[in-house]
Amino acid sequence: MTIRRSVPDITTSDPAASSAFYQLLGFREEMNLGWVVNLVSPSNPTAQVILITKDAAAPVNPDLSVEVEDVDAVYEAVRATGAEIVHPITDEDWGVRRFFARDPDGKVVNVVSHQS
Residues in the chain with pLDDT < 50? Predict the structure, then answer.
């Protein structure tokens, strides 16, 4: 299974203020949907931070996002272990296919592939 990137998801009550702070560190806004902001390093596009107020489609906010090549294969592998699926595999309106699973320490992981 191929991992394309791994990104921390930071819950924030003020995405504009948080975005301004991370921009001071050198990140730039790549995407802003209001409830979620993706910040990217201009010199290393795999170095990213996601700011999130409340996930628009899932019951909880994730702690980490992992972009994979084949989200369906990862979903089947995770489900086969009996791990808790927090948000079922879903094609989201903003162009991703994803699911959330809880890791052994209780952290919620957003496993995602971008749709073409």
Answer: none
H/E stretch holding 10: strand 3-11
Q: What is the pLDDT of residue 115?
A: 81
Collapse the DSSP code of 21 into the 3-class scheme (helix H, G, I; strand E, B; otherwise coil) and give the result: helix
In sign, the C-alpha dihedral spanning 69, 75, 81, 83 is positive
Which are the contacts of 49, defined by CB distance < 8 A and separation ≥ 6? Answer: 7, 8, 10, 22, 27, 38, 39
pLDDT digits (tens, 9 = 90+) for 36-61: 999 999 999 989 999 999 999 999 99
Taking the CA of residue 20 as centre, how many other CA atoms within 13 Å lie in the half-sphere pointing to its CB? 3
